[in-house]
């Protein structure tokens, strides 16, 4: 078998190129530290729709269309669109792509979906099954809040470890040719459940999955954290990031100077009252497709490991006393 | 670009082989016409679990373990498991695999998930990214009924077009080597929404997607229905199958003698009071991994097109007045 490194990692003879990205975020995200790096900041988080689910769907659709426009491509150029979101039965994605004339592969990896999409997309493009593949995910604070937590009008206190679901979407177009950052390796995560049951502490639930995938990536590739300019996690937030860095150190990998987390970067943690930081499929996708992609194109970053993390429960199964399984998928990107 | 035929189809230089399958069904399915073809018929649809969601998860887990056992493989032999189900946030799959030591890719394609899984799995195995990939899906009548429709205790009438969600799971192991039926082509569907809004008529909502993918498959491969011994849809049921056959005829493709539908095959439609037939991710997966795989291995069938179909809505978005988008993914199998 070619292309396989160790148990969880594959590498590419023909690394797919991220030829273009698009990112859209909501009003709150548009006031955060990364505000200058997004393509679009919404002035109306409803996007003119009558429900939050439809708003999220429209957010995803507009972001995909913007990516096509920026790449100067037509829908007919795209061989596959790989998309997902957090909503029940992934309706954010399904209603966003139903007007598209593009073969569709639906994914669910909770907040890990963006790197799951880029992982599968990379394999499909690299192997010659596609010239172009679009990777697309979104989340919306309002649709997530009512689905996973409480009605928007409910004035409950949030715990210090709670995270704020990002209103945002990101779309990356992978291609077998062109110029831009390349995806060189994909490390696919396992489902890891260390028994955390607090749904207001997703960071703690997801950190063990991030650790598992990160160690697998270093072992499979024989790389150390020094190899990368940035090791970017999706939405571990303040609590999960601290756990990751501390436990990685105990495992012999010092990522202290390399680690960044999209959930910590997208908001002013103190000033925007987001407690432990941002979360959601749209957190990693908007930060990667915005800030990180720009920095790669400008050669301010040249080697980045992007690892979105997802918590794979639903509210009902937690009420039934279950713990929270999680997963993390990593893609290594170089320019 | 190699391997691509037309807009939606890919073919394989190294066709992946379905080296083994496993199927498990519930008590009602175990009294149907295909009862002798399943590996396991449950004598207790709860599987000893305290909630229907956990029952479904255990159903999927046991089916995966049985497939490994039948194939004489260890978890460490499997490079990827690609799984999904109908439950919110796919908890059927996530809780089934959390004890597995296998890299995981989570999919959501509603009842189309089995062929989505086999499509992506085929590409990954054929391209050399994996020696072995497991494709796994499930559905459970009780967990689906309470999530999508009514409490189990609710004694409402079902409409004639309503379908009965299959309690069942199927697991197929794909490999780059070995003997067995091969996956020669994959045709990936687009999301198609023709405006059907009746969630008690999934067959009508899904039939247009099945037609779209089937026409794409014939056009891309330059094949006609005559090429196949069987054209198998997932769960169009009685209503959707009639629509499919009739509209395909109008499009110039006579599939009348070739078409079978898992939802019509798994139950005695009249005798088991299932109205328009079976449905669910577990319908196509248990019938394919049971009856169809056996017939292929016995050379009673040699060329089969398997196309699972999925309705991509959730109950909330239908209440918001939306119609039902659907999708169908086809895999061509030969021995």
TrEMBL record, chains A, B:
Q: Note the Pfam families from the entry.
A: SpoVAD (PF07451)
Taxonomic superkingdom = Bacteria
Q: Any transmembrane segments, and where?
A: none
Molecular function, one GO term: acyltransferase activity
The record's listing under Gene3D superfamilies reads: Stage V sporulation protein AD
InterPro entries in the record, alphabetically?
A: SpoVAD, SpoVAD_sf, Thiolase-like
Q: What is this protein called?
A: Stage V sporulation protein AD
Which source organism? Answer: Hominilimicola fabiformis
Gene designation? spoVAD
